[in-house]
Structures are given as C-alpha cells and as structure tokens.
Automatic annotation (TrEMBL):
Protein name from the UniProt record: CAP10 domain-containing protein
PANTHER family in alphabetical order: KDEL LYS-ASP-GLU-LEU CONTAINING - RELATED, PROTEIN O-GLUCOSYLTRANSFERASE 1
Domain Glycosyl transferase CAP10: 150-411
InterPro entries for this protein: CAP10, O-Glucosyltr/Glycosyltrsf_90
Any coiled-coil regions, as ranges: none
Family: Belongs to the glycosyltransferase 90 family.
Length: 423
C-alpha cells in the first residue's frame, strides 16, 4: 500500500521523506512487536469496549474494503470532519480498526523513555484496569510526583521545570488518562510524558468549520504595521482553584503586557466560567484582568508586526493561521504537534519559554532587527502557505494510518508465518 501512498503524495505535492515524528511515535510499538507481534492489535481490541461503553472523547472506527466507518455511537466534536478526511484516502488503507481522541488534550500517560519501560509495557505489574478513566484534580502533583512528568523549561543547557508554568500540568481542564501503552491517535501530546500517536488537528484543515479562518486576507504591508505584539483570547487553560490562575500562560501574558504597554497590546476577551472551580471568584478575576466579555475581530492581527501563540487547554489551534497572516509569530508551548520537525525556531518563528520570561526581550530584539524579523516572518508565512496545506495534512494522516494498519495486522502475519514454519 505504500506505493499507492507515494502516488497519492506525489499527486498532491506532499513531502515525501520528512516524517520522523511518525517514526518516533510508532517506534515503541515496533520494538514491542519484536517480542510480541500481537501487542498492538491486542491493545486496540482491549481498549475498544471501554470506548464503546463510555467514549469520553474517544472514538473507534474501522477501515474495511476501501471504506471507513465508525464502530460506536459515541460523540466527538470532529465526527463529521474526520469522516470526510478519512474518505479521501480510505481507498489505499488496509483493513484495520482504530481508536482516535477527539479532545484537545492527550490521553496516554506512559513515558517510554524512562528505564525499564519496555518490560513494563509487556508485563505491567499493575495493569490499568480502568483505562481512559484516570481523573486527577488538580493535576500538579499527579504529573510531578506520581508519574514523574518533568517538562524542561529550556531545551538546551541548565534548566528549571516548566510544570509550574503550564495550566495543563497544574490543573488540566480535561483528563481521563490511561497509564498503559495503548495506541491512541491524538492531536497533541507532552513529550516524553505522553505516548499518543500524533495526527493533524481539524483546526488546520481549511474545509473544516473548526478552522480559525479570516474573513479577508492581509493587505497591510510590513512597514505599515504597528511595531507591537498583539493577542486576544479567552482564559482557556485549566481549572481555576483559588489563585492558581496567576501561573497560567494567558494570565501571565496579560501581566507581562501591563509592564510593557509600549511594545505589547494584549487582553483577555472572555472568562471561562465553566472552569471556575473551588475557591474561584470569577467576578473578582474579571475585574482584576478587565475581562470585558467582548471578542475582537480576528482580522485585527493584520495591524501588528508581532503576534504570540500561547497554550490554552492544550495547543491553541491558531498557530498555522497566525503564520499565514503576514505577521511574525512568537510561539510558546509545552505541546508537540505533528509539524514540530518542519517549523524551525528563528527560521519560521520566534520561540518563547513556557513561562514567557523572555518574551519582552525577544520583542525588543525584533524591533531592533527589523530586517531579520521580517525575513523570519516571510519564511514562516511561505512555509505555512505552500507546505502545510490540507493535502499535506491528508498525506500525514494517511501515512499514520498505514503504519497503524501494518502494526495492527502484524499479529495475523506472525501467526501465518508460524503456521507455514510448522507445516
């Protein structure tokens, strides 16, 4: 089937070789398959009844005879979008069954990079008897102490932890995790703490209603844009308990903006009342941050040279749209998405630490180095427009499905090989 994928990719002008993320995501399962060829299929089959009983954002489906169909009655935000997407490449996907995650947050809390996790996956001392049902609240001590999820603030040199700068790690808005190594397709994950298999989000498909599209294209030249960093958005991020929100990226962004009004125009446009938990005073927070419950036109981003993308409940979903906007994107996140290998820091965007402590400094750099900043903006825009297309999303998604089907059917292939060897 890979020959058909190659023709599909060529026909749609997709990247051919640059899929290291897919290799990384499936590598643990290929390693396990050397000892237990049936592991992947067994875990999919084991997880399926749990999803059918109570999906909690997960869905099960099936590719069979060149068509895709759902195999449960669960609900997800993306049911229609996924069905439309899968239909475009179902003709060359081998028969297989899948589990896919419709929530923005990852689900598989299993760090295969830790020592002794290979035998733990094959022979867990304590198997997860309630997969996709783990609901720690808040999540700070769960991630830091119980599962040893320690996310570095910096990728190079000495570093502190970013755990206390992430709303997801502090008080995730959605949980329902599993601690066994289940094959689950998700839109994002925190590496290496989670082992979800990454796929493109429907936020990045122009034909999806979830795509944050603009009413009209940018027509303001770079030199006519205001030299400030702009952001508007909701208080999405995590459950608010008492005063913990001050550590959330979006609140932290506003705090920094108040200290630097000459280079930043940032504001919260709405408060997430449904995430106001124990000892949360929503009205006090709205007053403290002047949250007017009034959104701004999305096209206002065109007026500014600099934009920032920060995490919400997980990834924001805005990133590619911001890159295409004609402004320079400053990016802060703890999450991995399918395109991370392709979009390179200081070539396509400006990276910002999870706690945003270097944001003002890097805005000042961009203001002082306008030519270099403009070149980075142009490179990011061109790459997003020409490479990160709907067709490229399909090529990535279908490549994931081929690897998935190969592993799922490995148990049958191994059984057939054994039968031939004994006859």
């Amino acid at each position: 089937m890979y020959d058909k994928w190659f023709k599909f990719a060529r026909r749609h002008s997709c990247l051919i070789d640059e899929y290291e993320q897919i290799s990384r995501d499936f590598e643990p399962f290929y390693q396990l398959a050397k000892d237990d060829p049936g592991y992947f299929k067994r875990m999919v089959d084991k997880g399926t009844p749990h999803v059918k009983e109570d999906g909690r954002g997960l869905r099960t489906g099936r590719f069979a005879r060149k068509k895709f169909s759902w195999t449960d009655e669960q609900w997800s935000l993306y049911n229609t979008d996924w069905f439309r997407t899968f239909k475009r490449f179902a003709s060359f996907i081998p028969d297989t069954r899948i589990i896919i995650n419709g929530r923005d947050e990852p689900r598989v809390v299993f760090n295969y990079r830790m020592p002794e996790m290979h035998p733990t996956a094959l022979h867990p001392q304590v198997s997860d008897e309630t997969p996709f049902r783990h609901t720690p609240h808040p999540t700070a001590s769960y991630f830091r102490d119980e599962v040893q999820c320690h996310v570095p603030m910096r990728q190079q040199g000495f570093t502190s932890l970013a755990n206390d700068a992430s709303a997801f790690l502090l008080a995730a808005s959605s949980t329902d995790f599993t601690t066994d190594l289940y094959p689950i397709m998700s839109m994002t994950k925190v590496s290496p703490c989670f082992s979800d298999i990454l796929v493109p989000s429907e936020f990045y498909y122009s034909d999806s209603g979830w795509s944050p599209s603009y009413a009209y294209p940018n027509s303001i030249p770079w030199d006519d844009k205001e030299g400030k960093l702009y952001w508007r958005g909701m208080t999405s991020g995590g459950w608010v308990y008492g005063e913990n929100y001050h550590a959330f990226p979006r609140f932290r962004l506003i705090d920094i903006g108040r200290k630097h009004p000459d280079i930043m125009d940032v504001a919260l446009s709405a408060f997430h009342d449904s995430l106001c938990g124990e000892n949360c005073d929503g009205e006090k927070i709205k007053a403290e941050y002047d949250i007017a419950q009034q959104s701004a036109p999305r096209e206002d981003v065109y007026k500014f040279k600099y934009l920032v993308d920060v995490d919400g409940n997980s990834f924001s979903g805005r990133y590619l749209g911001l890159l295409r906007s004609g402004s320079l994107v400053f990016k802060s996140t703890i999450f991995t998405e399918y395109f991370n290998d392709w979009l390179r820091p200081f070539e396509h965007y400006i990276p910002i630490l999870p706690d945003l402590s270097d944001l003002a400094e890097k805005i000042e750099w961009a203001r002082a180095h306008d030519e270099e900043a403009h070149a980075i903006q142009q490179a990011g825009q061109v790459f997003a427009q020409r490479v990160l297309t709907d067709s490229q999303n399909d090529c990535y998604f279908s490549a994931v499905m081929l690897e998935w089907a190969r592993l799922y059917n490995m148990a049958t292939s191994a059984s057939a090989s054994r039968d031939l060897a004994t006859n």
